Known about the structure:
This protein is of the alpha/beta class and 327 residues long. It has three domains: 9-121, 3-Layer(aba) Sandwich (Cobalt-precorrin-4 Transmethylase, domain 1), CATH 3.40.1010; 124-246, Methyltransferase, Cobalt-precorrin-4 Transmethylase, Domain 2; 276-313. Helices cover 29% and strands 21% of the residues.
Amino acid sequence: MNTTTGKGKIMLVGLGPGSHDHLTARARAAIAEADTIIGYVTYIKLVADLLEGKEVIRKSMTEELDRAIESLARARQGKKVALISSGDAGVYGMAGPTFEVLFQAGWTPDSDIEVEIIPGASALNTCAALVGAPLTHDFCAISLSDLLTPWATIARRLDAVAYADFVVALYNPKSGRRTRQIVEAQRLFLRHRRPDTPVAIVKSAYRPKQRIEFTTLERMSECDIGMLTTVLIGNSNTFVRDGLMVTPRGYSNKYDVADGERATRSGEQAGRSLSTGLNGWLESLRISDETPAQLAAHYRLPLDYIIATLADLPHTEAEPVTEEGHA
Length: 327
């Protein structure tokens, strides 16, 4: 066991998917330097061979606040505590509840207890890596767990992102007690997406019982889904080819690629915004004969936004802006 220094420390450690091959060097070092390891019993098992000689505190699911309270108590004793989460501690992990507990206890960053957040690969990253490249355009994550979030709030978010054509990673899609949430999510998505929209279902990514299944939105709820599953729903351009799920970044909007050569499409310029980017779109509004209501329906945008934009149109076309770099 490490020797305590008198100044406590809480290290919020993201373990990634759970295999040692995907544990970061800093996460491994944090566990090595910790006096106490605190975590959900399943996460403790993932790193059990790294915990010899350490105080280990195992907690159950739904005891997240207890884990944070226990971490604070140990840190106040001058111990270094590794509070572990699977994936990333800041993505549906222990970082949020720990700061809530710390602030309620009067903690500030200048206090005697140091806090370090050690990132890990979240499920959406690891699952995406296993199925191809589904997240190479705009995406978001939504948890279907209604243990702490009202279902109406979750449903509004699902409906909004389905309408907005995001690729979506569904966390906590189903459990022994929560079986209908994935069906309701499917119902909301089918209001806006084609039934054949690609869906990837990844269970226990990078763990011994890993399982990957490709399906469609209309068949999604029939699949084997549980608490260790992440569901990736593609957008309107996502496709599956040769066992790989891919969401195009949008290069085909600007370039033709034939015989290994890239050619810029007519009306487009390399390194510049699309002709249908903001400046081009504003110009199309300026010369349009459509009413604001018709424009709102045409572009599926709020009417008050269209009205405000029309009222603020520049008199002359602005210089196109440089295209933003890759994410």
